Amino acid sequence: MNTRFLALGLGLLIATGASAEGMEERLRTQLRSTTQQLQALQSQQAQASAAQLAAQNEVKAAQAQIKQLTAELAKAKGLAEQLAGQQQSLHSQAQAQVAASAEQTGKFKKAYDELLVLARGKEAERSKLQAQLAERDTQVQQCSAKNQQMYGVAKQILTAYENIDVAEVMKIRQPFAGSARVKFDELAQGFGDELYKTQFDAPQAAIAH
Fold first, then answer.
1. Coiled-coil regions in this chain (predicted)?
2. Which residues contact 194 (CB under 8 A, 6 or more apart)?
Protein backbone atom coordinates (compact mmCIF):
# COMPACT_ATOMS: atom_id res chain seq x y z
CA MET A 1 0.00 0.00 0.00
CA ASN A 2 2.74 2.42 0.96
CA THR A 3 4.66 1.31 -2.05
CA ARG A 4 1.75 2.23 -4.23
CA PHE A 5 1.47 5.70 -2.68
CA LEU A 6 5.18 6.16 -3.04
CA ALA A 7 5.13 5.18 -6.67
CA LEU A 8 2.14 7.42 -7.26
CA GLY A 9 3.85 10.36 -5.58
CA LEU A 10 7.02 9.74 -7.49
CA GLY A 11 5.08 9.68 -10.72
CA LEU A 12 3.31 12.93 -9.84
CA LEU A 13 6.61 14.48 -8.94
CA ILE A 14 8.15 13.40 -12.23
CA ALA A 15 5.12 14.64 -14.13
CA THR A 16 5.19 17.93 -12.27
CA GLY A 17 8.90 18.36 -13.04
CA ALA A 18 8.34 17.62 -16.67
CA SER A 19 5.50 20.10 -16.79
CA ALA A 20 7.64 22.75 -15.12
CA GLU A 21 10.41 22.22 -17.63
CA GLY A 22 7.93 22.65 -20.52
CA MET A 23 6.54 25.82 -19.01
CA GLU A 24 10.03 27.23 -18.58
CA GLU A 25 10.81 26.45 -22.18
CA ARG A 26 7.64 28.17 -23.32
CA LEU A 27 8.46 31.16 -21.19
CA ARG A 28 11.95 31.34 -22.66
CA THR A 29 10.53 31.06 -26.15
CA GLN A 30 8.00 33.78 -25.40
CA LEU A 31 10.73 35.91 -23.86
CA ARG A 32 12.92 35.52 -26.93
CA SER A 33 9.95 36.41 -29.13
CA THR A 34 9.11 39.41 -27.00
CA THR A 35 12.77 40.45 -26.98
CA GLN A 36 12.92 40.17 -30.76
CA GLN A 37 9.72 42.16 -31.09
CA LEU A 38 11.11 44.75 -28.71
CA GLN A 39 14.33 44.95 -30.70
CA ALA A 40 12.33 45.24 -33.91
CA LEU A 41 10.23 48.00 -32.38
CA GLN A 42 13.37 49.74 -31.11
CA SER A 43 14.91 49.42 -34.57
CA GLN A 44 11.76 50.77 -36.16
CA GLN A 45 11.68 53.57 -33.59
CA ALA A 46 15.31 54.36 -34.32
CA GLN A 47 14.57 54.36 -38.03
CA ALA A 48 11.52 56.51 -37.45
CA SER A 49 13.57 58.88 -35.30
CA ALA A 50 16.26 59.01 -37.97
CA ALA A 51 13.62 59.59 -40.64
CA GLN A 52 12.00 62.27 -38.48
CA LEU A 53 15.36 63.91 -37.92
CA ALA A 54 16.13 63.73 -41.65
CA ALA A 55 12.69 65.16 -42.39
CA GLN A 56 13.28 67.95 -39.87
CA ASN A 57 16.65 68.65 -41.45
CA GLU A 58 15.04 68.67 -44.88
CA VAL A 59 12.36 71.02 -43.59
CA LYS A 60 15.02 73.29 -42.12
CA ALA A 61 17.00 73.17 -45.38
CA ALA A 62 13.84 73.88 -47.37
CA GLN A 63 12.97 76.77 -45.06
CA ALA A 64 16.50 78.15 -45.41
CA GLN A 65 16.27 77.77 -49.20
CA ILE A 66 12.85 79.45 -49.21
CA LYS A 67 14.27 82.28 -47.13
CA GLN A 68 17.24 82.62 -49.49
CA LEU A 69 15.00 82.48 -52.56
CA THR A 70 12.67 85.05 -51.00
CA ALA A 71 15.63 87.36 -50.37
CA GLU A 72 16.90 86.82 -53.92
CA LEU A 73 13.39 87.43 -55.28
CA ALA A 74 13.12 90.67 -53.31
CA LYS A 75 16.58 91.68 -54.54
CA ALA A 76 15.65 90.79 -58.13
CA LYS A 77 12.39 92.72 -57.78
CA GLY A 78 14.26 95.75 -56.46
CA LEU A 79 16.79 95.46 -59.28
CA ALA A 80 13.97 95.10 -61.82
CA GLU A 81 12.26 98.20 -60.42
CA GLN A 82 15.58 100.05 -60.52
CA LEU A 83 16.19 98.96 -64.11
CA ALA A 84 12.63 99.92 -65.02
CA GLY A 85 13.21 103.35 -63.48
CA GLN A 86 16.49 103.73 -65.36
CA GLN A 87 14.83 102.58 -68.57
CA GLN A 88 12.03 105.09 -68.08
CA SER A 89 14.59 107.79 -67.37
CA LEU A 90 16.58 106.86 -70.47
CA HIS A 91 13.38 106.78 -72.51
CA SER A 92 12.43 110.23 -71.24
CA GLN A 93 15.93 111.52 -71.97
CA ALA A 94 15.82 109.99 -75.45
CA GLN A 95 12.43 111.59 -76.12
CA ALA A 96 13.74 114.92 -74.85
CA GLN A 97 16.82 114.62 -77.08
CA VAL A 98 14.66 113.69 -80.07
CA ALA A 99 12.40 116.67 -79.39
CA ALA A 100 15.43 118.96 -78.96
CA SER A 101 16.97 117.58 -82.15
CA ALA A 102 13.71 118.10 -84.02
CA GLU A 103 13.48 121.66 -82.69
CA GLN A 104 17.13 122.31 -83.58
CA THR A 105 16.54 120.82 -87.03
CA GLY A 106 13.53 123.08 -87.44
CA LYS A 107 15.63 126.09 -86.44
CA PHE A 108 18.39 125.06 -88.84
CA LYS A 109 15.85 124.57 -91.64
CA LYS A 110 14.27 127.94 -90.93
CA ALA A 111 17.69 129.60 -90.88
CA TYR A 112 18.61 127.77 -94.09
CA ASP A 113 15.40 128.89 -95.78
CA GLU A 114 16.01 132.47 -94.64
CA LEU A 115 19.60 132.33 -95.89
CA LEU A 116 18.39 130.80 -99.15
CA VAL A 117 15.87 133.62 -99.62
CA LEU A 118 18.57 136.15 -98.72
CA ALA A 119 21.04 134.52 -101.10
CA ARG A 120 18.47 134.52 -103.90
CA GLY A 121 17.73 138.17 -103.18
CA LYS A 122 21.45 138.96 -103.20
CA GLU A 123 21.86 137.01 -106.43
CA ALA A 124 18.99 138.93 -108.02
CA GLU A 125 20.48 142.17 -106.74
CA ARG A 126 23.90 141.14 -108.05
CA SER A 127 22.42 140.28 -111.44
CA LYS A 128 20.60 143.61 -111.49
CA LEU A 129 23.75 145.49 -110.52
CA GLN A 130 25.72 143.55 -113.10
CA ALA A 131 23.15 144.45 -115.74
CA GLN A 132 23.30 148.09 -114.63
CA LEU A 133 27.08 147.96 -114.72
CA ALA A 134 27.00 146.50 -118.22
CA GLU A 135 24.55 149.24 -119.20
CA ARG A 136 26.84 151.86 -117.69
CA ASP A 137 29.78 150.35 -119.56
CA THR A 138 27.80 150.54 -122.78
CA GLN A 139 26.84 154.15 -122.04
CA VAL A 140 30.46 155.00 -121.25
CA GLN A 141 31.56 153.42 -124.51
CA GLN A 142 28.85 155.32 -126.40
CA CYS A 143 29.78 158.52 -124.59
CA SER A 144 33.42 157.96 -125.44
CA ALA A 145 32.48 157.40 -129.07
CA LYS A 146 30.36 160.58 -129.04
CA ASN A 147 33.25 162.47 -127.50
CA GLN A 148 35.50 161.24 -130.28
CA GLN A 149 32.92 162.37 -132.83
CA MET A 150 32.59 165.75 -131.09
CA TYR A 151 36.35 166.07 -131.04
CA GLY A 152 36.41 165.35 -134.76
CA VAL A 153 33.69 167.91 -135.46
CA ALA A 154 35.50 170.47 -133.33
CA LYS A 155 38.67 169.84 -135.30
CA GLN A 156 36.71 170.30 -138.52
CA ILE A 157 35.28 173.57 -137.19
CA LEU A 158 38.73 174.77 -136.21
CA THR A 159 40.11 173.75 -139.57
CA ALA A 160 37.24 175.51 -141.33
CA TYR A 161 37.81 178.68 -139.33
CA GLU A 162 41.52 178.47 -139.98
CA ASN A 163 40.93 178.13 -143.71
CA ILE A 164 38.16 180.74 -144.05
CA ASP A 165 39.14 183.70 -146.13
CA VAL A 166 38.75 187.24 -144.82
CA ALA A 167 37.35 188.25 -148.19
CA GLU A 168 34.60 185.66 -147.84
CA VAL A 169 33.77 187.02 -144.38
CA MET A 170 33.54 190.49 -145.84
CA LYS A 171 31.27 189.19 -148.58
CA ILE A 172 28.94 187.76 -145.96
CA ARG A 173 28.60 191.23 -144.47
CA GLN A 174 27.69 192.73 -147.84
CA PRO A 175 23.92 193.16 -148.45
CA PHE A 176 24.06 191.53 -151.87
CA ALA A 177 26.42 188.64 -151.03
CA GLY A 178 23.61 186.10 -150.85
CA SER A 179 25.53 183.13 -152.24
CA ALA A 180 28.36 183.54 -149.74
CA ARG A 181 25.90 183.85 -146.86
CA VAL A 182 24.05 180.74 -147.99
CA LYS A 183 27.31 178.81 -148.22
CA PHE A 184 28.29 179.94 -144.75
CA ASP A 185 24.85 179.10 -143.33
CA GLU A 186 25.01 175.65 -144.88
CA LEU A 187 28.43 175.10 -143.39
CA ALA A 188 27.21 176.24 -139.95
CA GLN A 189 24.11 174.05 -140.24
CA GLY A 190 26.28 171.05 -141.12
CA PHE A 191 28.50 171.62 -138.11
CA GLY A 192 25.42 172.08 -135.93
CA ASP A 193 23.98 168.80 -137.12
CA GLU A 194 27.24 167.03 -136.45
CA LEU A 195 27.39 168.51 -132.95
CA TYR A 196 23.79 167.46 -132.31
CA LYS A 197 24.66 163.92 -133.30
CA THR A 198 27.50 163.91 -130.79
CA GLN A 199 25.14 164.66 -127.87
CA PHE A 200 24.80 161.69 -125.49
CA ASP A 201 21.36 160.93 -124.02
CA ALA A 202 21.58 158.08 -121.44
CA PRO A 203 17.86 157.05 -121.48
CA GLN A 204 17.75 157.01 -125.28
CA ALA A 205 20.98 155.03 -125.34
CA ALA A 206 19.52 152.51 -122.88
CA ILE A 207 16.36 152.15 -125.03
CA ALA A 208 18.42 151.72 -128.16
CA HIS A 209 20.60 149.19 -126.34
1. 24-86
2. 149, 153, 156
